[in-house]
Specification:
Length: 571
């Protein structure tokens, strides 16, 4: 068979090959095995190398005309070649062209592994800056990502630089570091000379921003269930004809809210336990660890009669055990005179650590218990007296309470209001002792209520819920007092305080939902748990160093000006 002038070495190789016994499904040529540099000496590769060739619209057989020939002769040659079959090698047009290649030995390059995470159209990046607050420090997250085939998580250069440049998070038991790095009566504002362990310009994960103080909402709503249970059954408010179903609805709402907040904080304990530990060691936040158990006591006391008419005694012991454990630690620190002595950490939120004693005493006395309620009532009275005197003198830092935290002053009303009802239950009458505590609560309530401007002109925050529980407690205490002193004034007082507490809780609940679901600003970054052990260079030193630099630059400019003036005459 004659060939045209355009002959290639591949063509002669194909002509010398033995014709295949069957037609291959693809246009590919098989080359015999050859020695590979990746195989040991003397061992030949057992797998032939398959090379795919592009499909051709024509066969071989007729000689091709040289490129310089006539156009008519070239067309004739192509038509003759298309009519006659190939004599040695036959190429069949494949349905789909496929290109095959053998894998290179020696493993997968690193850049290929990094691209594995982008198969689904995205790259798996993990921010390492939150690892110090995670329970598993990111190890479980990396294992789950690897098992799911998501590739190796990588961090951006900015995140690596931030993680290396920042100091470690502050040790939890170093209370002096909290006072040195934070300011404000609630110790939640970072000083200008400090830095954070987390990025201040980004929004942190939700669980890191979810504080223990969120249980204050449970206190406000669950106390409303007790209020309307009292209104529906007490003699001074019978003329209102309040349906007991109101108590049932409020109780179920309280249970739902308590379940949601408890679940959210439980997830925080599981995934960000280090953040919870820092909240516990925070000299102010530790008081809010009483709030979940106080809310449980409220739910037990406000249970509707249609749900349960009598509670088992073991429930009281189960709910009061956490109080005893927390009080042994906190009250012991107040008394020991160490870093966490009361004169150093005193704050209106400390009332939460005291009011639980009176709530527990009230619930225990309502269930028929005697010794246990008296024990907790005595502990509460002793520590409330010391706390009241300490706070009444002024905050230990002598700093003015910011406007955003003015509502916490209403916590002064909570303890004496509940104490009056607890003592009345213990002695089975609203006698002199109960009236003494009730009158103290009413005086504190009136002294705060007349200062309207004191509670205006600040942005909404979770601290507003501090209004609800003390106001509701004062309303319930007024109803108990009206059962003993029954006249038009006491009835008007209990109705007015109940209405005011209800409107406050309703307004705050609606506002909280709007900020949480619409504005998404209910939980800002929790600065109090993200301080570091390393302190930045003080601003005064920076200013002094700046002045030194300016003086040095000024002196250098004077030297250069003098040298220029000396050279000018010579020129």
């Amino acid at each position: 068979m004659e060939l045209g002038h355009d002959r290639s070495p591949m063509y002669f190789n194909l002509m010398q090959m033995r014709p295949p016994e069957r037609v291959a499904p693809r246009s590919e040529a098989v080359i015999p095995a050859f020695d590979s540099p990746f195989n040991p000496p003397g061992q030949r590769s057992g797998h032939p190398v398959s090379i795919s060739l592009p499909s051709s619209p024509t066969g071989f057989g007729e000689p091709l005309v040289a490129p310089g020939g006539d156009l008519h002769e070239r067309k004739q040659a192509m038509s003759n070649a298309a009519q006659e079959p190939a004599q040695h090698v036959r190429f069949v047009q494949p349905h789909r062209v496929m290109f095959r290649s053998q894998p290179n030995p020696g493993g997968v390059p690193t850049h290929a592994v990094r691209r594995m995470g982008s198969r689904g159209g995205r790259t798996m990046n993990r921010d390492k800056r939150y690892d110090s607050f995670k329970t598993f420090s990111g190890k479980l997250e990396r294992q789950i990502t690897h098992l799911a085939g998501g590739g190796v998580p990588v961090s951006t250069p900015e995140e690596e630089e931030f993680a290396q440049g920042q100091g470690e998070a502050v040790s939890g038991d170093n209370v002096d570091r909290f006072f040195a790095a934070l300011e404000g009566p609630e110790l939640d504002k970072l000083k200008s000379s400090e830095e954070l362990a987390l990025p201040a310009d980004k929004k942190w994960p939700f669980l890191l921003r979810f504080p223990i103080s969120a249980f204050g909402m449970c206190l406000g709503v669950s106390s409303q269930a007790i209020l309307y249970k009292t209104i529906a059954t007490a003699a001074p408010t019978e003329f209102l004809h309040v349906n007991p179903k109101v108590n049932l609805v409020l109780w179920f709402i309280s249970v739902g809210l308590m379940s949601i907040i408890t679940a959210a904080y439980a997830f925080k304990i599981i995934f960000f336990f280090e953040a919870v530990r820092r909240e516990y060691y925070h000299p102010i936040r530790v008081n809010f660890f009483f709030a979940p158990w106080i809310a449980c006591l409220f739910l037990a006391m406000g249970v509707p009669p249609s749900v349960a008419t009598q509670l088992p005694p073991w429930l009281w012991y189960a709910l009061m055990s956490p109080f005893l454990c927390l009080e042994l630690k906190i009250y012991g620190q107040w008394m020991s005179g160490g870093q966490r002595r009361l004169s150093k950490v005193a704050n209106p939120s400390n009332h939460l650590s005291v009011v639980g004693n009176f709530v527990g005493a009230l619930m225990g006395a309502s269930m028929g218990l005697k010794e246990g309620p008296i024990f907790f009532f005595g502990v509460g009275v002793a520590h409330y007296t010391v706390l009241f005197v300490t706070l009444y003198q002024r905050l230990p830092t002598n700093a003015t309470l910011p406007k955003d935290l003015h509502p916490v002053f209403f916590l002064f009303v909570a303890a004496p209001s509940v104490a009056s009802m607890a003592w009345a239950k213990i002695v089975d009458e609203f006698g002199v002792g109960a009236k003494l505590a009730y009158f103290i609560a009413m005086f504190l309530y009136a002294s705060l209520a007349v200062r309207i401007n004191f509670f205006r002109g600040f942005m909404f925050s979770l601290s507003w819920w501090a209004y609800t529980f003390p106001m509701t407690g004062a309303a319930i205490a007024s109803i108990r007092y009206a059962t003993v002193v029954d006249n038009a004034f006491t009835k008007a007082l209990c109705v007015g305080l109940s209405l005011l507490a209800t409107l406050t809780v309703t307004g705050l609940f609606a506002t909280t939902m709007v900020h949480a679901l619409v504005y998404h600003d209910l939980f800002p970054n929790d600065i109090a748990i993200a301080i570091t052990d390393r302190k930045m260079k003080p601003i005064m030193e920076l200013q002094e160093s700046g002045k030194d630099d300016d003086s040095r630059s000024g002196s250098s400019k004077d030297v250069e000006a003098g040298a220029t003036a000396a050279v000018a005459p010579e020129a």
